[in-house]
Amino acid sequence: MEEKDTPSFKTSSLKHSPFFNTSTSSIITSNTFPPTSSNVAQNYSILSQLSALPSELKSAVTYVFHTSSKAREDARMRLLPETNWLLKTTLSAASFGFVTGGYLAGQQRGRQFLAENAHRLPKTVGGWYFYHKYKNYEMAMAAFMGGLKHAKRFWLISAGFTSTELIIEHWHGQESWINSLASGCTLAIGFSIASQ
């Protein structure tokens, strides 16, 4: 095959592919899978990214949960930009959802506890001590459970938005604000239909 017929590839998307030779930075072609057109080149790039999923998952887990900062940095450098963006948005959204959900659920449980015991308020110092002790315990438990609930919701929303944006961007072929707008509208329509 002549060199002019070989389509150009992005080395960043093929760095985990078994057809990519990192020592020579070239594509190793074979008779069983010769890329001959732009469509085949695009499909070949998708297949190479799918083959890199196990290493991507391992790098993602290392980046999130490893205790060593050097190991986390090495794992971050091995991640694809799409995976890195997806991890950062979902983790940030889940953290924000846990904090806000915990605060709202704790405050609500405190008011509920007051309403439930309004007819039997304590009249001694020891009674008020145990009253606030159990109230704080109930608020802490409600805050933890409410934080988890809101973190799950925020994580699902951010993961859906980011994944939809990446899919539209891959289909559109370039980065644009239209991708984010289309992703947000698609996600909003989907959630409105699901909530009815």
Describe the structure.
- This protein is mainly alpha-helical.
- The chain has two domains: 49 residues, no CATH class; 122 residues, no CATH class.
- The chain is built from six helices and two strands.
- It has a two-stranded antiparallel ribbon with strand order 1-2.
- A hairpin with a 4-residue loop joins strand 1 and strand 2.
- The relative contact order is 0.08.
What structural keywords apply?
mainly alpha, two-stranded antiparallel ribbon, 2% strand, 2 strands, 2 domains
Helical content class: over 70%
Domain tally:
2
How big is the Rg? Answer: 26 Å
Structural category is mainly alpha
Largest sheet: 2 strands, antiparallel
Multimerization state: single chain
- Taking strands numbered 1, 2, ... along the chain, how are they ordered across the largest sheet? 1-2
> Order of helices and strands, N to C?
EEHHHHHH
Strand content: under 5%
Number of strands: 2
Distance between the termini: 57 Å
What is the count of DSSP helices, taking H or I runs of 4+ residues? 6
Q: pLDDT average, as an integer?
A: 76
Shape: elongated
- Unreliably modeled segments: 6-37
